[in-house]
Amino acid sequence: MDIELEEKSDWTKIREKLNQTYKYDKTWEDAITLFNKRVKRKFFDPIQTIINGKTLKGEGFTIVTVQCALIEMFAAFRVGKIFNHSKTSASPKYEYDKSQKMFVSLLRSASVFQDNFWQLNNKNKVVIDKPYNPTDFYKNVRCGLMHEARTKDNWHITATPLTKSVKTEKQFLVTENGKIKIYRTVLHYRLLDYLKEYSEELRKDTKKSEELRKFFARKLDHLFDFNADTKYDWWTE
């Protein structure tokens, strides 16, 4: 609990310096560092501990359930969206109550998902939903795990064969004997890569990155239980 209070205290100090300023500087770097430490401590490090145990007795279900939560979290951070199960037509535009569109959008666009949920054709054009359909992944893996503690249809979770290097392998989805297999350890390292890439995007000196920083600050406010406050520009719609 002490570390939770310390992190909130750190964000309290950081946010006061960031209000109305979206140019990347040391204070924004402090916010990015805070986010990285929290996400690794709460999610990536525990997953790594499970992987390192090498028990191979069904722990893949726990790993991929957490990974699906991470994917949705990353997707929401990119667009500054906050989940509200009771969302109405009068709710702020930054709230959402249905995650599929946002979840699938990240799978179709992030570089770490290339050759899993999108690929380049021979003209170097992006082709989405190839070789695997991200909507199927959302329904049969994400929703299957979250709501029914299982994967559905022909989706299966497995450890990675020893012939593959989990730290460099790009594809975490393969089809064998009619089954779509999810190499959960490969996905772990690809999501770590995504965290690095997202952090680098937050550091860039571009209009797009300024917008990402605005959404990022809003999400950190919500993460640390700060109420919406239009005194802070990132809460404006």
The description of the largest β-sheet is:
3 strands, mixed
List low-confidence stretches: none
The arrangement of helices and strands along the chain is HHHEEHEEHEEEHH
Strand coverage percent: 5-15%
Number of helical regions: 7
Rg over CA atoms: 19 Å
> What is the topology, as strand order, of the major beta sheet?
5-7-6
Helicity level: 40-55%
Strand segment count? 7
Average of the residue pLDDT scores: 96
Shape: globular
Distance between the amino and carboxyl termini: 33 Å
Category by helix and strand content = mainly alpha
State the main characteristics:
237 residues; mainly alpha; three-stranded mixed beta sheet; 7 helices; 7 strands
Descriptive report:
It is a single chain. With 237 residues, this protein is mainly α. It has seven helices and seven strands; from the N terminus they run αααββαββαβββαα. A three-stranded mixed sheet has the order 5-7-6. The chain has a two-stranded parallel ribbon with strand order 1-2. A two-stranded antiparallel ribbon has the order 3-4. A hairpin with a 5-residue loop joins strand 3 and strand 4. Helix 4 (100-107) crosses helix 5. The longest helix has 28 residues, at 26-53. The radius of gyration is 19 Å and the shape is globular. It starts with a helix and ends in a 14-residue tail after the last helix. The mean pLDDT is 96.
